[in-house]
């Protein structure tokens, strides 16, 4: 193992990257994460290999031999993006977790701003959410996102322009408070607000994916997303104020 890489024994920050069949994007993205974070935080990188059938696992294993702050978790079968993010957060050792997509569209250069926004929140900020500008997706996909974000915001009143951006940072303990369901990552702002935390927003510049095609599509989650929206609305409506608890000593 390379002694020049940060140790995973006591990281303050964990970077979680969900991937499925992204072999050609592995090495470039890890190099960019290192360039953004080396010397700034003690950090670990957790790749969650969501049932890949290409060389993703082998590429990660080869780089793990050179970087002792890189970890790989593997799902035997693909469980989807939310499941992959959850697996990574549960395994994370850092108090702050940052996420980004594994296709290269999310630029790791914005990770420091997201992490710093959570740190500066001094416990009040539970989530720093990336908000994409200059998106590189097709016009149809951008239209889909505008409609979905508009409907979600009008119902949940979460004050968030773009929940689909994979670039996020949050306190691990806050994420683990969330009720888990498939699609959770798209409703984090509303659920974090439900728990009484503030949200910080960071504009990020989108870019084209390095290679390959999207593995987490729109139409396969459209109707499920509608049901999720109704469920999250119900959760918010049913939330009661958190009691102010003090321990009474004899």
Automatic annotation (TrEMBL):
Top-level taxon of origin: Bacteria
UniProt cross-references to InterPro entries, sorted A to Z: Glyco_trans_2-like, Glycosyltransferase_2, Nucleotide-diphossugar_trans
UniProt entry tagged with the keyword Membrane: yes
Keyword Ion transport on entry: no
An individual GO BP term: lipopolysaccharide biosynthetic process
UniProt cross-references to Gene3D superfamilies, sorted A to Z: Spore Coat Polysaccharide Biosynthesis Protein SpsA, Chain A
Keywords: Cell membrane, Glycosyltransferase, Lipopolysaccharide biosynthesis, Membrane, Transferase, Transmembrane, Transmembrane helix
Domain Glycosyltransferase 2-like: 14-175
Family matches, as Pfam families: Glycos_transf_2
UniProt organism field: Bradyrhizobium shewense
Molecular-function GO terms, alphabetical: undecaprenyl-phosphate 4-deoxy-4-formamido-L-arabinose transferase activity
This protein's name: Glycosyltransferase involved in cell wall bisynthesis
